[in-house]
From TrEMBL:
Major location category of this protein: secreted
UniProt-recorded Gene Ontology molecular function terms: heme binding; peroxidase activity
GO CC annotations on file: extracellular region
Organism in which the protein naturally occurs: Daphnia galeata
GO terms of biological process kind: response to oxidative stress
Protein name as annotated: Chorion peroxidase
Length: 1278
């Protein structure tokens, strides 16, 4: 159990009730009780000296008389802490960004190193001892992904250390003050799982501790007894101490471990085997592998030393002295040793590296059933709860993998057995007396220049003298005792813990405690008919071999698990009450309550009493003389039948059929009505009702965001046929009509814009409203409620074409190949850079590309989407799938059940906060990622890629599509047709709103430079020399503008894509980098990191810069993306940096579909072949509109969704933080005219409807006129 001794599985203590007691003794003396022999093993030595005789317990089983002591609760010491970390100076965010980017390049450089090593044939020989050991330490794919994230943090920390000249201690501890969530390493932070109160453990160990949901989970770091001593404080292995080089590890090994054999006289081989089994259940630390999952070789094939500059960065080989007694004569000078994988910290901090545990940290058989859902599913039959098996000569074995060659000495035609624990090799060495002699190190001269404090913990533990009756010395004994105490007390699902909803009953525990390893060996062996009860000990008079059928080796009686014992269960919510009642958890009560509240909302549960029978009617048949305390409570609180059923539903407690038909549906005396509850359950129910009666929080409506196919109307969510009143948006508060005719009301001009054309023809005159503001007489109609939630489903092709079943191994190979494809792109980029295919900073293409540049977190998400797309394309090629089968049929593959599991976006943890989130998550509580930044945009129809997945469409039915530049020249000419009744502000405001809702970034290189798809002179680059993300526009020779200038190519880089929220393969989906809501995310930032970089954190202000005494946005002198900038001034910093005005207005040319016919473009095509955007531009516009029917419908649909799909839209009422009618009335006074007036220096007059040209109905007036009203903040007084 080597790793358990050095670093502990991170199982932290939780409070549990006292263990269930043992049965009464029978036939034993005072202070003794009769137990099965397997439960007396801790007193074995005492019983042997006292010649303890067998006894019979109350059930007739033969056992031994053991001391009658209550199982002591472990007292665990606190973890050894390091000294307070040495603080480092404040680190500028720019330095963090630079080091983070450099850290990512370091990982790419490692891939290049691996390719060079492979090219130089420095790779491991299969079936060698090093290969066998490395294969047994191989990581699973998700371990590789998590370790890469940890390496990013480590590399960034080391770069910071070099940049700031930090000492090892400062780097190890001081850098822990940096929260990676507030840097460009945000994606490396492990996301918290969403925990439900399930009956069983999770496969990956998450949610065992409900306050620290990742503690003890797979792929997390192990807990340390003491901080590590890396040479640099972060990652370099310790090689010297106080300037002196540490002794050679092989020399130390030869001194301590010799070839002599000293078997333990009173222990059997089963002790070591079972120790290995438990060890491999709790800990598996994988070793690093290459990007293509091959073993790393740190020595030459002949065992020679490889020069350090040619070694893999993860190598740490063992040098063999020339006089080594075993390897010396064989000429071996190097033993392969690869460093262990590391994991990112749960608390998302920099600092020293922490090793990864690939399995869960609990004793839960995760090495058998798998540490994740994907791995577990690959081992299961999904029939009768069975695992997959193979049969060899009629005998049942684990399933075989014939492609796996990692098992040594395998029989031809027989594959390696498949399980999570594939080690399978038996360690034949037993503990030796040599291990208990510390003088060995002194005798060998190893300690001559060292103190005892310099000795490695593991080496010191091996040589310390053992305690009486133990195989270990005091240090190892203490560590192992502490570890197993933590493994029990820190495991919420440990079988002996009582008081939980699914705890074993006393009778069940009694049966479980009968079981022993002796019984397991007897029941699962073919030829063993006798065995000693204590199989870890050799047979003796106290531990004789007995027949396997003897009652001395009792078995479990499953009768204790009959359903009648369900009364021992208690509701899940009691677990919450236990947690929040603990004094150490007081700070988390609000969080726990919020989690319960979210659960109730998600299950459509109102927090006010539900409709149902009146309490006096419901309990009228309860005789007042028979009232118990419970009865009185039910009547006093007016408990309804629906509330009882809801409580059952919320807490996962469903009565059995006979209970539901009998007791559960009758409401007589409470003792009868709820007699299948225990007192714990009713206590929890009482607490739930009291909270329910005192809270004033109303349920939260669930709006659609961007997926109409899965949208919910209010009537779908709530049983009531009428929408609850607190969900009705605040109506327009109509002011008293002042001088307007019948059916008209006086409103500010800005609120009359929808009737502008009608008012203009009727020569509507100004009026004065009840508050004295001047406005216009507009139709007196109640604001119509949008019907966005009633939209019919978008007519997508939802019938997925059938494809053949795809073997898991093929998906795995395609996934690995997809990762190699990404690495290949990096190599292509280096080659392009070498050949100077880079973009000129003064070109127009550079300015446009810079405006479309992605954020760092966008690139990370897009890489994940590319992995999925590349894997799908690999599968398409392998299976010869049609475009339709690939684009739609592959959507049946769930990436969560494959090696692409890390590409699946994780759901955010939503709390009922007062305000929006920066990234738009948790707006919709049913679908918390809908409308959030870095997610795909919703489609009106499925795309038409050339291959169905990702290749652009360049033809149809074998015909090449027309050149886009030719179409553009046909539709847009150089003539100017300005809109006669619209101002330039219309276009500007349209851009502003557009950029608030959508920003689709373009791909960039790995080092964040723009991609060039044409030569510097506008020439065509051969396809084989282009970047894979290029899709340049070919320019015809006769182009009226570019032709005479010799330009034959315009740069065009493809848009970034995002992984699907539902974690499926299929066609690529373009990414929206900002939130999909109208929420000013292009101003304040689409993430907490970016928002923080724009804020002063003083008075709620954003950062600013002052130029000639005037306030502007902050400047970034290092940013070269703004064109025509004045020397000495930087680019302004904001999320929305476009700033360039589009001077083209809508033209009559855009409303003439005959243009395409006249240009001959449609001669060989049907109307269905025309691109939607082009078709929308040339369709004839509707009366009074600037758009045709298709674009009018799409835009109206979008803005209806933008309102109805936004839970925080300002007009929505019924929320805890909704605006009041008075506040809404003030908000509705504001107009763009008022904003222009209040924020301009030289504008003193403006027309109220700034999108329209001035007219008699819309005349220019003084900015101070009451016709342009302002907001009165008095409505917001507390």
């Amino acid at each position: 159990m080597l790793w358990i001794l050095l670093v502990l599985p991170a199982v932290i203590l939780a409070h549990h009730p006292s263990p269930n007691p043992v049965v009464a003794n029978s036939g034993c003396g005072h202070h003794y009780v009769c137990k099965p022999a397997s439960q007396c093993s801790v007193w074995y030595d005492e019983l042997r000296t006292q010649s303890s005789k067998p006894c019979t317990d109350a059930r007739g089983y033969v056992g031994l008389c053991c001391p009658d002591v209550v199982q002591a609760k472990s007292t665990l010491g606190t973890k050894i802490r390091a000294n307070i970390p040495k603080s480092v100076q404040s680190i500028p965010s720019k330095v963090l960004e630079q080091t983070s980017r450099a850290a990512r390049i370091d990982l790419i450089d490692m891939n290049v190193i691996e390719e060079n090593l492979s090219f130089n044939n420095i790779k491991m020989t299969e079936n060698s001892m090093a290969w066998t050991h490395s294969s047994s330490m191989a990581p699973i794919q998700m371990s590789h992904t998590q370790s890469a994230k940890a390496l990013l943090i480590v590399n960034a920390g080391r770069r910071l250390q070099d940049k700031l000249s930090l000492s090892p201690e400062q780097a190890a501890f001081g850098l822990q003050g940096i929260d990676t969530r507030l840097s460009f390493l945000e994606d490396t932070c492990p996301q918290l799982p969403v925990c439900l109160l399930n009956k069983y453990r999770t496969f990956d160990g998450t949610c065992n501790n409900l306050l620290q949901t990742t503690w003890g989970s797979a792929l997390s770091t192990m807990e340390r007894l003491a901080p590590p001593e890396y040479d640099d404080g972060i990652w370099d292995p310790r090689s010297r101490k106080a300037g002196k080089k540490l002794p050679n590890v092989r020399v130390v090994s030869n001194v301590i471990v010799t070839d002599e054999n000293f078997p333990a006289v009173d222990k059997t081989h089963i002790l070591m085997q079972f120790g290995q089994f438990i060890d491999h259940d709790m800990v598996q630390v994988p070793a690093f592998r290459t990007a293509n999952q091959s073993n790393i070789e740190c020595c030459s094939t002949e065992g020679g030393i490889i020069s350090p500059e040619r070694r893999h960065p993860h190598c740490f080989p063992i040098d063999i002295p020339n006089n080594d007694p075993f390897y010396g004569p064989r000429g071996v000078r190097c033993l392969n040793f690869v460093r262990s994988m590391i994991a990112p910290r749960t608390e998302c901090r920099m600092g020293y590296a922490d090793q990864m545990n690939q399995l869960t940290h609990f004793i839960d058989a995760s090495h058998i059933y798998g540490p994740s859902t994907a791995v577990a599913d690959s081992l299961r039959q999904f029939v009768g709860g069975l695992l997959k098996i193979s049969k060899i000569e009629g005998r049942i074995y684990p399933s075989q993998n014939f492609q796996d060659t990692s098992c040594v000495g395998r029989t031809p035609g027989v594959g390696c057995f498949v399980s999570v624990e594939e080690d399978g090799k038996v360690r034949v060495e037993l503990m030796r007396n040599w291990f208990n002699n510390p003088s060995l190190l002194r005798q060998a001269g190893i300690l001559d220049a060292w103190t005892i404090n310099d000795i490695d913990l593991f080496i010191g533990g091996l040589v310390e003298r053992h305690l009486p009756g133990s195989m270990l010395g005091p240090v190892f004994s203490c560590i192992i005792a502490d570890q197993f105490a933590r493994s029990k007390e820190g495991d919420r699902f440990f079988y002996e813990h009582g008081g939980h909803p699914n705890s074993f009953s006393l009778a069940q525990l009694q049966e479980i405690r009968k079981m022993s390893l002796a019984a397991i060996i007897c029941d699962n062996s073919d030829y063993i008919i006798k065995v000693q009860p204590l199989v870890f000990r050799h047979p003796s008079s106290t531990n004789p071999r007995v027949d396997c059928k003897s009652s001395v080796i009792p078995r479990m009686n499953l009768a204790a698990w009959k359903q009648s014992n369900v009364k021992h269960l208690m509701p899940h919510s009691l677990l919450f009450h236990r947690i929040v009642s603990d004094s150490c958890c007081k700070m988390s009560k609000s969080m726990i309550f919020t989690a319960l509240l979210v659960c109730s909302v998600l299950q459509n549960s109102d927090l006010s009493p539900l409709p149902g029978p009146r309490p006096q009617d419901m309990w009228s048949n309860v005789n007042s003389q028979d009232h118990t305390e419970e009865d009185a409570f039910m009547i006093a609180k007016g408990v309804t039948q629906e509330e009882i059923e809801e409580f059952h539903r919320l807490n996962g407690f469903i009565p059995t059929d006979n209970q539901a038909e009998g007791q559960g549906r009758s409401f007589g005396k409470i003792g009868e009505a709820l007699k299948f509850w225990n007192w714990h359950a009713f206590d929890s129910f009482r607490h739930w009702i009291e909270e329910r009666r005192t809270t004033t929080i109303k349920p939260i409506p669930v709006y659609i965001v961007n997926n109409p196919d899965e949208s919910y109307s209010f009537n779908d969510i709530y049983v009531s046929s009428a929408r609850p009143p607190y969900f009705i948006p605040n109506p327009v508060v109509v002011v008293t009509k002042g001088g307007c005719g019948h059916q008209y009301v006086c409103k500010p001009a800005s609120q009359c814009s929808v009737w502008y054309d009608e008012l203009r023809t009727q020569s509507s005159k100004p009026c004065t409203d009840a508050r004295g503001y001047v406005g216009l007489c507009c139709p007196d109609v109640v604001q119509a409620k949008s019907i966005a939630t009633k939209y019919p489903a978008i007519q997508k092709n939802r019938v997925l074409p059938a494809i053949q079943p795809i073997p898991t191994s093929l998906i795995e190979k395609s996934s690995r190949a997809a990762r190699s494809d990404l690495i290949q792109i990096n190599a292509i980029e280096e080659n392009l850079n070498l050949k100077k295919y880079t973009m000129s900073e003064t070109s127009m293409a550079w300015g446009h590309s810079t405006n479309m540049a992605p954020l760092e977190m966008s690139r990370i998400q897009s890489d994940k989407a590319l992995l999925v797309v590349n894997a799908a394309r690999r599968l398409q090629d392998k299976l010869l799938l049609s475009p339709e089968q690939a684009g739609l049929g592959l959507q049946t593959i769930d990436t969560r059940l494959s090696l692409l599991e890390d590409t699946c976006p994780r759901l955010p943890v939503c709390l009922l906060t007062k305000y929006r989130t920066y990234d738009g998550t948790c707006n919709n509580l049913r679908k918390p990622s809908w409308g959030s930044s870095l997610t795909p945009m919703e489609r009106l129809a499925s795309p038409e890629y050339g291959d169905g997945i990702w290749d652009p469409k360049i033809g149809n039915s074998g015909k090449q599509l027309p050149n886009v530049r030719v179409i553009r020249n046909s539709i847009v000419t150089e003539e100017n047709f300005p809109a006669v009744d619209m101002t330039h502000i219309l276009m500007q405001w349209g851009q502003f709103v557009d950029h608030d809702m959508i920003h689709v970034p373009s791909f960039r290189t790995i080092n964040q430079t723009n991609i060039e798809c044409c030569t510097a002179e506008g020439g065509i680059i051969p396809p084989e020399m282009r970047h894979p993300h290029c899709f340049p526009i070919d320019i015809p020779n006769n182009d009226p503008f570019y032709g005479p200038r010799g330009v034959r190519c315009l740069n065009f880089v493809r848009s970034m894509i995002a992984p699907r929220a539902e974690c499926r393969m299929g066609y690529a989906e373009q990414m929206n980098e900002i939130s999909h809501f109208i929420d000013a995310s292009h101003i304040y930032g689409p993430s907490p990191v970016i928002a923080a970089s724009l804020r002063q954190f003083v008075g709620g202000l954003l950062k600013i810069s002052k130029i000639e005494g005037r306030v502007y946005l902050p400047q970034n002198p290092l940013d070269k993306s703004c064109i025509g900038k004045v020397p000495g001034f930087g680019c302004f910093v904001s999320v929305e940096e476009d700033g360039k005005v589009r001077v083209e207005l809508m033209r009559d040319w855009f409303n003439n579909p005959s243009l395409l016919r006249h240009a001959g473009i449609l001669d060989a095509w049907t109307i269905n072949d025309i691109d939607l955007f082009i078709g929308g531009l040339v369709e004839r516009h509707l009366p009074g509109s600037m758009l045709g029917p298709v674009f009018s419908c799409i835009i109206a649909d979008q803005f209806a969704r933008s309102k109805e799909g936004d839970r925080f839209f300002y007009e929505h009422g019924g929320h805890p933080n909704s605006f009041s009618p008075a506040q809404l009335q003030e908000i509705r006074k504001m107009s763009l005219a008022a904003i222009i007036c209040d924020n301009s220096d030289y504008i003193i007059k403006v027309q109220p409807l700034v999108f329209r040209h001035p007219s008699p109905t819309n005349s220019r007036i003084n900015c101070r006129s009451s016709i342009i009203p302002r907001l009165n903040l008095a409505a917001w007084k507390q």
